[in-house]
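Notes continue from the previous slide.

Worked example: a multi-chain complex. Inputs as given:
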Amino acid sequence: MEKFQLKMKVNGRTVTVAVEPGLRLLDVLRDVLHLTGTKEGCGEGECGACSVILDGELVDSCLVLAPQAHGKEVVTIEGISREGELDALQRAFLTAGAVQCGYCTPGMILAAKALLSRNPNPGRQEIARGISGNLCRCTGYAKIVKAVELAAAELQQKEGAAGV
Amino acid sequence: MSETCVVGKSAPRVDGPAKVSGKSQYGADIDIPGALFLKVLRSKTPHGMVKRIDVAEALKIPGVVRVFTHADVPGENSYGIIVKDQPALTDQVRFRGDALALVAAETEEAAKQALEVIKVEIEELPPLYDVWSAMAEKAQAIHAKGNILTVSRVKKGDAAAALRTAAVVVSRRYTTQRVEHSYIETEAGVAYMDNGILVIKAGTQNPHYDRRDVSRVLGLPMHKVRIIQAATGGGFGGKLDISVQCFLGLAALKLGRPVRMVYDRRESIAATGKRHPFLVEYTSAADREGKLLAVKAKIIGDTGAYASYGPATLNRAAVHATGPYEVPNVDIEALCVYTNNPFSGAMRGFGTPQMAFAAESQMDLLAQELELTPLEIRRRNVLRPGSLTATGQRLDHSVGISATLEAAWEKAGRVMPGLGGEVK
Amino acid sequence: MLNLSAYHQPKSLPEALALLGSSGRALRPLAGGTDLVPALTKGETEPLGLVDLSRIPELRGISRVDNQIRIGSLSTFGEIENSPLLLAVPLLREAAAAVGSPQIRSQGTIGGNIANASPAADTVTALAALDAVARLESAAGSRSVQVSELLCGVGQTKLLPGEVIKEILFQVPPQGSRSGFVKLGRRKALAIARMNLALVITFEAGRISRARVALGAVGPNPSRRPALELVLLGQEPSRTLIDEFAMAASKEVGQMLGTRPSVSYKREAVKGIARDLLQRLFFGAGQVVG
C-alpha cells in the first residue's frame, strides 16, 4: 500500500515521515523517531504507559493510528524538560519518591501535565481522576498524587510571584 | 568524609532523573541496528508429547532467517531456579503456553507470519488442571519423578493431643486464586556476540541466575555469557525466572547476529509465572481464655507445569502458617504439586500472603466462638520477646507485632471513628 | 502492525460518503479509534481500508437552537463532558464523564459509541433516556432514526453499507426537569459498565409529570424501560417511592436477564444504583433546569 506522508510537530519540531498507515502513533514515536520514553504496556488503552499529549489532549498513543496525528502537535516525555532542565513535575516526582520501576512514569507525568494545564490547582480527587487512565504497579499511587500536589503548589507559587 | 551516614535520610534515586525524562533504556528500548526479531510459537494444548514440528512453510516466508526447535538446543535443555525442569524449547507440552519453536526474522511481521504456518503434531494427554487429579494415584506424571514435587513439614509438640482436649476447635478449608504480577513492562531484551562473548541485555530481577541457566542451556562456559540487567519495569518476583533470556541467547549464538524480542501483554500473561493458588485445610484450637493451643494445617500449592520457586514458596508457607502468633503445638504439611496450569513462582510474599488469609480468618472465627473481640484474641496470642516460633526459634530480640497491632488499632479508631471500640 | 490497503482522510462529508458508498463494506469508517484500533491490531477485524472521519467539519461541534441540541457524531466524550451547552442535560455529561479514562475521553466519540453497539455503552443509555435521534447520511441520502432503534443486538446496528452517523439530535427536557446518570463498574476508571442507569424526571406542582428511565448492560443494547417510568409517573418524591422504584427495577432486571448467570448479582445491584440516583435527583443537589 501507498505510504502515508505524515507531517506533525513532535516536541516543538516539525517532522515529516512516510509511514505505513496501519502504524500506530506509538510505533512512529518509538520505532521511527526513536523516542523510546513513550512505553507500551498493554497495547489496548488500559495502562496508559503510552500516554502522550496530542493537540493539548491526553491520549493513549497505542489507540491512535499514525495518520490520525497528521497535522497535529505531539508532546512526549522527551519534550517535557527544557534544555536539559527538569520540569516542575519531573522534579516533584523525584522529590516525592513517586518513581520506582519508572515504566509508568512518562505516561504518568504527561497525564499530570495535561491535568495541570487545565486545572492548575487540583484537589486530591481531581488528581486521582486525572491519572485514572494510568496504571502503576509499584507505588500504590499515594506518592504520585503527592508529587502532582507538590508540582501544582510550585507552579502556583511561581505564578503568584510573577503576578506581583 | 562529608556524607558517610545515609541512614534515616532520604537519598535521591540514582536512576531517578533518567526515569522521569524518559531516557532510561528498558529491554524494548535498546536500539540495536540490524537486529533480528524473535517470536515464540506457544502450545495451544495443555498436555502432550510433541511428535513432529514442520517448519518448511515458515522458512519460505521472505525475511524469515531461521526457526529453532528443541532439537537445536546445544546444551542441557532444562532450566529453573530450584529444579531444572523447564525446557527452553520443549518436546513435551506441560501447559498451554509452553514454547515449541523460536522464529528469527528480519521483521516482526515476518516472524509473526511464520508462527501461523509452523505445523506441530502433538499426541495429546489428558490435562490435569487441579491438584487433586494431579495427586491421584494413577495420574499421568507431568514430570518423571511424579506430580508431588516437595513436601515440607513443621512439627512442634503434640498437635493431635492438644486438639482432642481443647475447649474450642475451628476447622475450615481455604482456597486462594492464581495471580498475575502485571508489571507494566512486559518481558523484553536484546542479545549479541561481542568478541566471542554472548551478551544479553534484558529486564530481569536475577542476572546471576540467568547467567547460570543460559550457559547451561546453550552449553557455554559461564565466562562466555554476560547478562546485563536493563532498566526493569517492575518484577514483583515474576522476573526472577527466565523469560526471553534463553531465546535471545540461542538465536544470537547460532546466527551470529544481534537479536531482539518483546513479549506482548498476552504472551506475558500466558507464558510467565503466577502467584501459587493455595488450598489450605486449617484447624486451630484454643482454651477458654483464647490462648492458642494448637494448629494443624495441610497446604497444597499448585505450582503448575514447572517448579520455578514453588518448593521455596510452599516451604515458606509452612513456616509462616501460624501467622504472628505463638502456638505450642504445631503440625503443618505443605505440598508443592505439578499440574498442567501456567507455572507458579515467586510473587511478593512467597506464600505468606496466602497463609495470612487463612491464619487471620481462623483467628476471627476463634474470637467469634469465644465471644472475644478480634483484637483481644490477637493481643493474647501475638509473638513477644521470649516466644517460641512454630519452628522452635526463641525470639530473644525485639518482636514488633504487638506494637504494630496497637498502632493499627489506634489509627483505625482515628480514621474510622464508628469502629465500635472494644465492646463486643 | 496491521496491513491496510487503503487509508483515506476526506475533508468533507460528501467525499467520505462517496468513498464509503463505492466500497460496499470493504472500507470502514474510523472515528476516534479507541475500540477500532486495538481490534485492528489484534486482527479481530480486517477491513481492506479505513476512511478517517476526523477531518470532516460537518461531523463536529455541539450546538443548540431553541430547545434542540445537536451533537456532531465526532464530538469526543471530553467535549461533551465539558460543554457548557450541555449543562441542561446532566445525564449526558455524567455519562460522558463515566467513559473509560481521560485518554479514552479525549479520543473516543459519541458516534463511535453508538456505532460500536456495545450493550454497556454509557452515552447510549443517556441518549435512550433523551429519546435522541441519529441523523444518518449516505451517498444515497439521509434519514433519521431513534438511537435506540438503530441498535439491534450486541455489536449490531441497522446502519446500511456506506452510511455514517452525522449527528445526534434531541430536545432539552422540559422545564422543571432533573436528570442524572449512574454507572456501576468493577472500578472507577477503565471499567466497562456492569450496569448503568439514566433518568430524566420532570416535576409539575410537586409531582412527577414525565419520566424517562433507561438501563444499560442489562440487554443487548441500552433501552428505555416504560414499566419503570410508570412507577414514577404522577407520584410525589418520597423515600417510599425510592424503595418502590428500586424493587421495580430489580424485578425488571430479573425479567430482562431471565436465566443469565449475572441475574442474581444485577437484580440486587440495580437496587443500589437506582437508590443512589433517585436519592440524588429527589433530595440532592441535582439542579432544576429549564
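Summary box: The mean pLDDT of chain A is 95. The helical segments of chain A are 25-32, 88-95, 105-118, 124-130, 142-163.
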